[in-house]
Every structure is written in structure tokens, then in C-alpha cells.
Design goal:
Length: 284
């Protein structure tokens, strides 16, 4: 059952096109721009994280950019050692609008390129023009990889009918109560890397009895067990935290392994239960 076992915080998956993406990153959804955000990103990088995930709609790209600049200087790192993701918001999903949104994100982040740029949501009748813009950016060498977020199988099938370039990543809500098994299988067949946002269900799984039992046996936290489950299923994961101890704890995943039986127990928790919007019924 175990598909993949990352050995180290900086281990990577190789995306379509050969770009290396860390299995574990820091998400900054709902973290306000400001000192707390800057310190969280700097702390993550100092503790070995190399992947940071933001989005235009989070309105914190400037703070992420400041943190990256300071962290590079303080840790003696090069920009190429980091993997930075952002996303184009729904209001900008036209061809020219998406190109402009990308440049605006780069300006706020203070970067010359992104490692990954995603269409944030599959807005009906709009995402194909946005995808054409992402293909243009990719072909021009302005972005290392392009992908989508919150796309269901039917959105991907529709996109792939006309796409010249296959999405490298599909970032979706994914946790033990929403395991997205059919979507994961489809993306694996298509060579699209699945990435989990809200992997801890915004804390909603920390009291789950089966997860608590597995965590107690492993001498780990429930959060660590869930993130380990992601990794062993070959799922890139980006837990969010602003607390240094939690950022460290979320990365301490490489000194234990879940058994096939434990993986099966967690797989069995699925309820198709979301904490975020349904991509087919999101009021844009």
C-alpha cells in the first residue's frame, strides 16, 4: 500500500518536465500579511523547509517576499534552493488578465520567477483562457511549472482536451475525511502530482479516536500521523502554522513509518467531508 516514503524534509518529487518539488511545504492561507507571517516563513526556511505556498487572494505575497529575501540572506541560501508557489484568483481568469496577474504576484513577492503557478479554482468557461496564459508563461521560461487547484476529474478532462501542456500539479482539499481516492487515481494515471491543502482539516481531526490511537502507538502527534499518511500515499502536503514549535513538529515525519494496517485504518475514515467550498458549487 505504501507508495512512497520520503526520507528527509528536503526530499522532492519530480514533476512532469523534470522540476523537483519538495514533498512537504508551508502553506500561508489565512495568515495576515505582517510580522507573524514573516517570522513563520523565516522560521520554516531556517528549520529546513524549502517550499512556500501562497496565492494572490491571500493578500500576503508582500510579506512572503520579504521573508524569503531575509531568509535567503540569513541562511546563506540561493533563490534556486526554494520552491515558491502562487495562484491566480478567479477575477483574473482571462488570457491577458492572467498574464498581468502573474506579473503582479512576482512584483509583490519581489521575485523574478515562480516555481509553480496555479489556477486557483475551476471557474466555468474561464479556466481554459487562463490555462493558455499559463502555457505562454511556461513556454517563455517565466515559470518553472504550471498547474491547477481544486479541479475535479471532469474539469481536468475538459482542460486536457485543448491543453498543449499537461498540468504538473493539482492542489486540492485532501485529508482523512476527504481522501479523494478517485481523483488521486486519475491524476496518477495522467502524471499529475496531487498536493493536499488543509491536510489537517483545519485542526478538525486532532481528536479523532483512531488517529489518536495510531499516534499514541507511534509516539507521535495526530498531525504528524496525518502528514505521514500523505507522504506514504505520494501526496505533496502543505500544512499551515505560524508557531515555530508546530512548524518544527510538522516536519518531524521522517523517523517513523505507518504500517499497511494503519494506512488502511486511515484510508477507511473517508466521509467525503469538506471544510472548504465544493469546486462544483463555489459561489465565485
Amino acid at each position: 500500500m505504501t507508495q512512497h516514503t520520503a526520507q528527509h524534509l528536503q526530499d522532492t518529487t519530480v514533476l512532469t518536465g523534470g522540476v523537483k518539488m519538495p514533498w512537504l511545504g508551508l502553506g500561508v492561507f489565512q495568515v495576515e500579511d505582517g510580522e507573524e507571517l514573516v517570522q513563520a516563513v523565516k522560521s520554516a526556511i531556517a528549520h529546513g523547509y524549502r517550499s512556500i505556498d501562497t496565492a494572490a487572494i491571500y493578500q500576503n505575497e508582500r510579506g512572503v517576499g520579504q521573508a524569503i529575501a531575509e531568509a535567503l540572506a540569513e541562511n546563506g541560501l540561493r533563490r534556486e534552493e526554494l520552491f515558491i508557489t502562487s495562484k491566480v484568483w478567479n477575477a483574473d481568469l482571462g488570457y491577458e488578465e492572467t498574464l498581468a496577474a502573474y506579473e503582479a504576484s512576482l512584483e509583490r513577492l519581489g521575485l523574478e520567477y515562480l516555481d509553480l503557478y496555479l489556477i486557483h479554482w475551476p471557474v466555468k468557461d474561464k479556466y481554459k483562457e487562463a490555462w493558455r496564459a499559463l502555457e505562454t508563461l511556461f513556454k517563455a521560461g517565466r515559470v518553472k511549472a504550471v498547474g491547477v487547484s481544486n479541479f475535479q476529474i471532469h474539469h481536468l478532462e475538459d482542460l486536457l482536451k485543448d491543453a498543449e501542456i499537461r498540468p504538473a500539479v493539482n492542489q486540492v482539499e485532501l485529508h482523512p475525511y476527504l481522501s479523494q481516492q478517485a481523483l488521486r487515481s486519475y491524476c496518477r494515471e495522467q502524471g499529475i502530482q496531487i498536493e493536499a491543502w488543509s491536510p489537517l482539516m483545519q485542526g478538525g481531526l486532532l481528536d479523532q479516536p483512531d488517529l489518536q490511537s495510531i499516534a499514541a502507538r507511534a509516539g507521535k502527534s495526530v498531525a504528524q500521523v496525518i502528514l505521514r499518511w500523505d507522504l506514504q500515499h505520494g501526496i505533496v502536503t502543505i500544512p499551515k502554522s505560524t508557531k515555530e514549535l508546530r512548524i518544527q513538529e510538522n516536519a518531524a515525519l521522517f523517523d517513523f513509518e505507518l504500517s499497511d494496517e494503519e494506512m488502511a485504518v486511515i484510508d477507511g475514515l473517508n466521509r467525503d467531508q469538506r471544510v472548504g467550498p465544493d469546486p462544483d458549487n463555489f459561489d465565485f
